[in-house]
Amino acid sequence: MPPRVFSLDLSRTSYVCQSCLTNLQRPSSQQLLTRSYAHATRKAPQPRYPPTPRKLRHAPAAAPQPQPSPQDFQKALLQAQTEDALELPETAALDDAGRPISVRYYNEDEAGQYRQLRDGSEFGSISGGLDSEIETAINDLEQQMVNTMQMLKRMEQEGNQDKADELRKQFKKTLREKYKGKTGPEAEEYGLLRIPGFSGVRQRAVANLNRFLARESVVKGGVPKPKDLVECWKFYSAARAALATNWSSVPREAWDFLWMILSYEGAENPNRMRRIYILARDMRAAGLTLRDSQQLLAIEAMFIEGWQGEAIEAWKKAVITLGSKPDVFRSYWELGIRMCCLHGDTDRALRAADTLLSSPAQDANPRILIPIIRALAAKETTHEQAWDSYQRLRELLGDEMQIEDYDEIIAAFLSSNRVEYGLQSFVDMMFSGAVDIRGRTKLPHQVGNHFFIGKWLKRLIGAGDLDGAYKVVVYLQSKGVVASPIQLNGLIGAWLRSETAENLEKAEKLAWDMIRSRLSYVRLRQREAAMEPSVHLYDPGNRITPTTQGTDASEFVCATRASAETFSLMAENYSVRGLHDRLQELWGVLEAAEIGTNSFMMNQLMRSYTQNGQAQEAVAFYQTMTQERGIKPDAHTFLALFNTLSVNRLLQRDTELAVLDAINGRKHFNDMVHADWSFDSVETFAILPRTVLFSMLKAKDFTGMIIAARAMKELFAFTPPEALLIELAAGTATLRVKTKRNMERIMEGSKTIESLIRRHRREVGYEGGALTAEQKGEELGAVLEQLVLIKAGAQDADPKEVRPLLEATARDMGVYEVVVARDPVVIARRKKVVRRDDGDE
């Protein structure tokens, strides 16, 4: 509801609203803004509550003209910039006697109550929907223009006409630069934007939209920020209901500006088409004619939003208006081709492609045939047309056909189960069309080999087309080419890494098909061994012929035999998913498949036992496999062993179990030192020593911890990093957990380590300067031992009393010759080295 002005006080000075000021201005022959000016006559003050409160009452002058909008101001400003002179009438905020006029404003709310407004800014905001910031900016601009024009007049009166003309030109340039508005991505300029005609508290949503449109930071530099995209739709969608009552009040500049933001194409605008569809519908409701590019985008948005038939009809109706214009010719026909292909109207798509590609005046891209190929290949009756369109594409592109084009064509044929066409396309890419495999029962030797097929499968798997790769495997086996275990293991691994239920099921099915093929081969080999040496039985997996397999994936019987990697992939997957029963079943099948067991499978089953709450079974399984089956353990085996300790499994510590952990931890360390293994990665080198030290710390085996650190220094070349010392001092397994308690413990641990370092340096007479790597290692090792003594409460113990305990522990852990006797032969024999990928140690 508009505000009510109930009284005029001629004895005070205050701000005069724009409408009143308009009526109080003296008329002028040249006016910058579209306003009517009239002299005000002095009247006696009005009573506080007038008899007609629902009428807006100002000074008893002529009826006030509507307040100009920013668009009016902008038009007037542009008009003034083209004139020879800029003049403004002098403001007359005084009565006829020369006294200032003060105006008080009131507003009537919905309940009929009247509230006095603070000032003219609040009056302008409520009455015209113009927020105070915009109003203040306009008033400031007006005042600057008045002052400038007065200065220019004085200069002209004083005879400085040339100087005045020069300053007037400079003033015009400054106005253009300062108020040029926003610039869109296509260099279109937008001035001061505002939607007038919506005022009052009920139109707050429109006021919020106006504030957004006036924000200087919006689309600065031509590219909207993610915040602009979100807030633009937020404010516009909230204001739609109010704007729908008077669409004609929205200026064309505002529509274009909203379109420019909401149609921005990028990852920051995921709902782009949905918003464009709604915006285009609103613009049509407002009676606006969309520009050519806007029409095309609106049709595309309509199609994507589900109105496919209507969008195609709209596209067909625009053939005269858009289909013949050079600026949008190519975009129009390409849009129609894509829509018709998705809608299944391939005949119309082909006709549109002919029109586009046969036009000599347009730079048509032959790649528009790719969606046509995809649509034709999907139909049983048109796949030959798809192949013809592919040949046409190759002819039009010639040497410009890229690998990415072939990838799209191959994916189109494979997705529609046209594997032969897909293979031929890949062969064309590799041999430039010199080899033809279509219709052949047996593939030529250039194609029908593991090397060539492996390259194709690797490319498909790398591109994420896993279903297409599987179809290739099925097709090739029907042509007598059996995929190698390495190739199928790559496909199984890719399926497992995707972690989707469907792909996990596919991976498991293919893996067990390969396992069954392996079991069939083993049974056949056992039967051959039981017969005379000259008898050889038929091996379908090794001597498959092109006629023994079909191309239907549902009837596919995999002839590729599982390898140790196949079992390892499934073992790791079952272990991660906690499928202990399936892992045990897999282990039993591994023995039946007569594939040598390895440490990887053993480690997975040990982890599975531990996760299943069967730590003792995990240790017993380790002992059986290493002692009876001869499996050589590795670093991961001992990680799994130390993780069987209760201090690493249980959240609640058990004193009795901790005592057993100290005993078992020493046994595991003894096995680790005496086993023949070496580190296979830097990651394992960082994890294993840390696990050993933390396990003994939590089990309170302090002497074992000191001996383990000394032994790992000799055998692993391990020096505890400072971060690990802080973790051990704080008693926390990680520095990354940012809880309050954990941070407090870390701070205390840091202070402890810093204090121990300073103490050690005083003891060794450190005189400053940088430490060598050897000196730093000695320092950190000494700090670790001092920290262990503090944890044990023996920091003041006599070293002579501690030495016998350490020697006994060294014997118990099997490293007496390493840390006490320091036998170089024993150290060299038991030393573990880090094996890098390049083969160096």
TrEMBL record:
Keywords of this entry: Repeat
PROSITE patterns referenced in this protein's UniProt entry, alphabetically: PPR (PS51375)
Superkingdom classification of source: Eukaryota
PPR repeats: 598-633
Gene3D superfamilies reported in the protein's UniProt record: Tetratricopeptide repeat domain (1.25.40.10)
Any Pfam family: PPR_2
Chain positions covered by the region annotation Disordered: 39-72
Family: Belongs to the CCM1 family.
Protein function: Regulates mitochondrial small subunit maturation by controlling 15S rRNA 5'-end processing. Localizes to the 5' precursor of the 15S rRNA in a position that is subsequently occupied by mS47 in the mature yeast mtSSU. Uses structure and sequence-specific RNA recognition, binding to a single-stranded region of the precursor and specifically recognizing bases -6 to -1. The exchange of Ccm1 for mS47 is coupled to the irreversible removal of precursor rRNA that is accompanied by conformational changes of the mitoribosomal proteins uS5m and mS26.
Quaternary context: Binds to mitochondrial small subunit 15S rRNA.
Protein name: Pentatricopeptide repeat protein
Species, as recorded: Cercophora scortea
